[in-house]
Design brief:
alpha/beta; 20 strands; 33 helices
């Protein structure tokens, strides 16, 4: 490229915008509305190009080759072929066509091949080869008339189009090879629903289209006489292409059924989308304008080659840094790829007569790449690929210590005085609620081991301290008119409910009233709304919740210890306050009876704090494993921090990997904070957790651990899959598990931690192997059953994709996999905890007792992505004498004693801390706290010794 400062500035703008745009597009809300987003981005970018043309004299290249007639005639020989008249409409059509190809690939991105786009420079080099147009070196030295034939041959070889094509192919193939090291997610490409060969075909078609757009655009812009005319031509092309996209967008909206919506839009989605459009349009326009100016000063291949090389170099360095982990099991392959990319690109700079690469001289770039390769080789050599201890050994020990610490922290108080002191210490000096002494006595009578630690209640109720009592009552009145909401009323020392017509729901409320009746005489009069469906319903934007929490925290800090003491009499009740205009409250609600998966994911993103990964946009890359999503809660491959795992805000990929996120929300979903009590929720939701007994009969397990089958077992009934979307079929948590065990393809691979012998010592090393081969030694039995007739389309689709098996008895097996239902937590979690089997839990839901369970002590945690499933179960079951992996017999002994210990600890803890009596203690404490929050005189209500 030219060595003037303006050209370098253009290159810097190009590279910076390219890297920034590549990183920002990993998570974006624009992907959910591809045609609308394409229209807006093209239109805004075209408008920015027009505006930039008004300032062309300050832009790089403004006084370039065509500003004068003499310059034009002098440079005419170096121009590409003159463009034809039809080039501009062809470019417009190809841009629209390319966007449609991208849209089609994105719909089945799990079937796409990574790295195909790396061959774009090869196509451009092939065009130069066949058109016999190569860039000429710019030399300040006089021509040597007496050069030797060897020197002439060297010069010819460097400038030959054959050399350009070869070197371009070399480093492009190296960039393509980088994709081989990318770990795939378990979101699978179905042989029944997807056409993987067609997806790859249109990927290649897209790359050819890119090449045609760039070549024709290069010709059109290069023959424009001034920078101003180039930018205006470019702006016109982009705006006309946006018009074409808009026609397709409107035609699609007319032809397809639109999402059912209510009277009020959801809050926050428009602003999030507008911000993404604005920021991305600015980056895209910078990229397009800098590309246009650059190719006019050099050749079309130069910026594309540098962009491809930069992507490959950064990815290769990242792969080198992962050597020795489960994501990069080979030390030599990343170095080979880094060498091919570096050498190939250096040779390319000679073949393309590039003395400068962006702002670096070619010699300096050679030294930089050499130092990077040498440093990488040294790092790979010293990086240990073996582990002295299995990570699960450490996790079991650490969490056993943590479980003991948690229990000591939860059982500090042995007297009422200590309980009051602990309460005040843990609640910023606030006194306990009225009748706290009655609750303490009740908890001791029920022999509760948890006296002082009720963090879940504190988190659930804290935002309501920031609301006025009148607003809380308005929310209750709104809930009373909604379906599948049970109302439990406490008045005059008695509890009753509203008798729902559904017999199952009636049993749930009967059990709730039965538990409340054991302590109802100590509660103030109140009514509570209980969600009788599994799926939670209150999803408030983070900004609103944060404001309420801050207000609630300030309100509680104002409560001083010398507040008036409340006696046994009930204080001022909300029911005695001013009358409430219920109709006005309902009309002002923000709720929807139907929410598509796309909209639901956006709402969940809004429930995360600004700056979090999920708030940054939707994670659209369902094909690749998101390592940054699992890193905060993992130790290597294994799940370490269960509490953090339940928080979706740092792991946006989870929105594509669970049925809760990939199926429509068919019940009222509220963005206002409402006083709704639910059995379970995810961390995004703001329902108040309440203990509810489900009307399901579970038999008691009488089989000892050693007498059970050494099998990891899970079965799911297809009748509960009432709605199957393409996203839930391929990405749903239950479907992915069954596919992984039974339908894995030849290209599916997994990293598994295997035992090896190193100098006579037992070590462990991650190795990559086919999923099919890893499944062989491990006794997985994951399947669907069907207890009803398979007549609807959803059931038939599941049967064709996965097949059905006869129902089996889960408690006959040592390891029971526990997965969420479509809408809620596993229904068999408590029965499995109380059994002699090991609970292998993979869940995103919280229940009232979740904070009491400790991973690796009471259950075996499995990440929802299942990337550590094989390594985890190999630790407990063992691989020795179970068949070869990677062609070698395995040495890993099973840790059945650890598995038996976890089963025993889970059973003992469930019988000690998750009994019906513990549910009553929790419910009593919850309703005491709630009774104070909803009282008009709450700032003066307290129990004081």
């Amino acid at each position: 490229m030219a060595r003037d400062g303006g050209s370098r500035l253009t290159a810097v703008c190009f590279l910076a915008s390219y890297i920034w745009l590549s990183c920002s597009l990993q998570r974006h809300s624009l992907i959910d509305q591809p045609r609308l987003s394409s229209f807006l981005l093209l239109f805004i970018s075209g408008a920015i190009a027009f505006v930039a043309s008004l300032f062309s004299k300050w832009l790089p290249g403004a006084d370039g080759r065509f500003d004068s007639e003499a310059a034009f005639k002098g440079m005419q020989s170096s121009l590409p072929h003159r463009p034809r008249r039809f080039y501009v409409p062809c470019i417009i059509f190809l841009i629209v066509f390319r966007l449609e190809i991208t849209h089609r690939v994105m719909r089945e991105f799990q079937c796409a091949t990574e790295g195909v786009e790396a061959f774009l420079p090869v196509l451009l080099a092939a065009h130069e080869f066949f058109s016999h147009r190569t860039a000429q070196a710019v030399s300040d030295d006089p021509e040597d008339m007496w050069g030797s034939p060897l020197e002439d041959f060297k010069n010819w070889l460097i400038s030959s189009p054959i050399t350009l094509l070869f070197t371009t192919t070399l480093f492009s193939y190296g960039v393509f090879m980088v994709g081989d090291f990318t770990t795939r997610s378990t979101y699978f490409c179905s042989t029944l629903m997807n056409e993987s060969s067609f997806v790859v075909l249109i990927q290649w078609l897209g790359v050819f289209t890119d090449a045609m757009i760039l070549i024709m655009l290069w010709r059109v812009l290069s023959w424009a006489r001034t920078t101003k005319s180039r930018l205006r031509t470019l702006g016109g092309i982009l705006i006309l292409a946006s018009v074409g996209v808009s026609f397709l967008w409107m035609a699609t909206r007319v032809s397809q059924h639109q999402e059912i919506i209510g009277h009020h839009p959801f809050r926050g989605i428009g602003s999030l989308y507008f911000f993404d459009v604005s920021s991305t349009a600015l980056l895209l326009s910078t990229l397009i304008i800098s590309t246009a100016l650059w190719i006019c000063d050099s050749t079309v291949i130069e910026p594309t080659a540098i962009a491809t090389f930069t992507s490959g170099l950064l990815a290769s360095i990242q792969n080198v840094l992962l050597i020795g982990t489960y994501q990069q099991t080979s030390a030599g392959q990343p170095l080979v790829v880094l060498f091919v990319i570096s050498v190939g690109f250096i040779l390319f700079t000679y073949a393309n007569n590039m003395r400068w690469v962006v702002v670096f001289k070619r010699v300096f770039l050679m030294l930089l790449l050499t130092s990077i390769f040498v440093t990488s080789a040294i790092y790979a050599a010293v990086r240990s690929k073996h582990l002295d201890r299995h990570p699960v050994d450490d996790l079991v020990y650490k969490n056993r210590v943590e479980a003991d610490r948690w229990l000591r922290h939860a059982t500090v108080s042995t007297t009422l005085k200590l309980a009051v002191t602990e309460y005040k210490d843990r609640h910023q000096g606030r006194d306990p609620p009225p009748n706290f002494d009655k609750w303490f006595e009740f908890a001791q009578q029920r022999k509760s081991v948890v006296i002082d630690r009720f963090d879940q209640i504190e988190r659930d109720i804290l935002p309501f301290w920031g609301m006025k009592q009148r607003k809380i009552q308005e929310g209750l009145e709104r809930l009373k008119g909604l379906p599948d909401i049970g109302i439990v009323t406490i008045a005059d020392g008695k509890a009753s409910h509203n008798q729902p017509p559904d017999p199952v729901q009636k049993v749930v409320l009967d059990e709730a009233v039965s538990m409340i009746s054991t302590f109802v005489q100590h509660l103030p009069d109140m009514s509570i709304a209980i969600n009788l469906k599994e799926r939670p319903r209150v999803l408030v934007p983070w900004d609103d919740i944060h404001r309420l929490v801050m207000a609630g925290s300030k309100s509680r800090l104002q409560l001083l210890p010398y507040r008036s003491r409340r006696g046994q009499e009930d204080g001022h009740k909300l029911s005695e306050g001013n009358p409430i205009d219920v109709s006005k409250a309902i009309l002002g609600s923000v709720a929807q009876p139907y929410v598509s998966p796309k909209k639901f994911r956006q709402l969940e993103a809004l429930a995360c704090p600004p700056g979090s990964a999920a708030r940054g946009g939707v994670h659209w890359d369902v094909r690749d494993f998101c390592s940054s999503c699992v890193r905060p809660h993992s130790e290597g491959q294994f799940l370490q921090d269960w509490e953090m795992f339940l928080d979706p805000c740092h792991q946006p990929d989870i929105f594509n990997l669970h049925d809760l996120h990939t199926t429509p929300h068919l019940h009222d979903l509220h963005q206002d904070l409402l006083p709704l009590f639910s059995r379970s929720k995810t961390d995004s939701f703001n329902d108040i957790l309440i203990p509810l007994i489900q009307p399901v009969n579970h038999e008691r397990d009488g089989t000892e651990f050693n007498q059970k089958k050494d099998i990891v077992f899970w079965q799911g009934d297809a009748k509960y899959s009432q709605i199957v979307t393409p996203q839930s079929l391929l990405g749903g948590h239950r479907h992915r598990l069954v596919h992984l065990a039974n339908n894995a393809s030849a290209v599916d691979e997994v990293s598994i931690l295997l035992g090896v012998q190193v100098k006579g010592k037992d070590k462990f090393r991650y190795e990559e192997t086919q999923v099919r081969e890893a499944n062989g030694p491990l006794p997985f039995e994951f399947s669907f059953t069907n207890s009803a007739s398979c007549e609807d389309a959803n059931c038939q689709l599941l049967q064709q994709e996965f097949g059905f098996k006869e129902p089996g008895r889960a408690l006959d097996n040592r390891y029971i996999m526990l997965l969420d239902t479509v809408d809620g937590p596993p229904s068999d979690l408590l029965p499995t905890l109380r059994s002699n089997s090991v609970p292998v839990l993979s869940s995103i839901f919280r229940e009232w007792y979740t904070e009491r369970l400790m991973p690796w002590v009471h259950f075996v945690p499995i990440d929802l992505r299942y990337h550590a499933l094989h390594s985890t179960m190999a630790y407990f079951i063992g691989l020795k004498n179970r068949g070869p992996i990677n062609g070698r017999p395995q040495l890993t002994e099973g840790r059945q004693e650890d598995a038996r210990w976890i089963a025993e600890q889970g059973r003992k803890w469930a019988d000690k801390a998750i009994r019906r009596e513990d549910m009553e203690v929790y419910l009593f404490r919850l309703l005491l706290e709630w009774g104070r929050v909803i009282d008009d005189n709450r700032d003066n209500l307290a129990f004081v010794l």
